[in-house]
Amino acid sequence: MKRLHIHIAVADLAHNVDFYSRLFAQAPTVQHADYAKWMLDEPRINFAISARGAKPGLDHLGIQVDGAEELDALQARFEAADLATRSQQGTGCCYSRSDKHWVTDPQGVAWEHFHTLGDIPTFNDVVGGSANSGGCTPPVRGKPLGIPVKPAAPPATSCC
Known about the structure:
Blueprint: E1 3-9, H1 13-24, E2 30-32, E3 35-41, E4 44-50, E5 57-65, H2 68-80, E6 86-93, E7 96-104, E8 110-119
């Protein structure tokens, strides 16, 4: 079964944990000094925030799957659609070890499909690395890996 994943970079983790705990009416499922995650069933979402020096705002989106077969099916869908991807096997990110496939949309938003293999004691596998190193960011961040999309023609009349 698939679960939508949203990861947001924040400037003040404690303030955001308080806000999202109130919004979701529950405490984080996982919390560390630089990271918090809510595994919600309604809606079915893996919502994570981190304060690791990245510019605040949307970090990336993803689809979390329960098994290797589902992950392989998503990768096959990318390949059938001729979307260029980057794969990471057994990479450490967000206090978890996962197998992943990344694609970047035409706007530069990174999407990951991933299967979590287990917990790890550190945010990522990089010792002494930067906040944006390791398996937590796509190998080519901000550069579209997918099919270039032609911008839509402007509407005939302006709106709003």
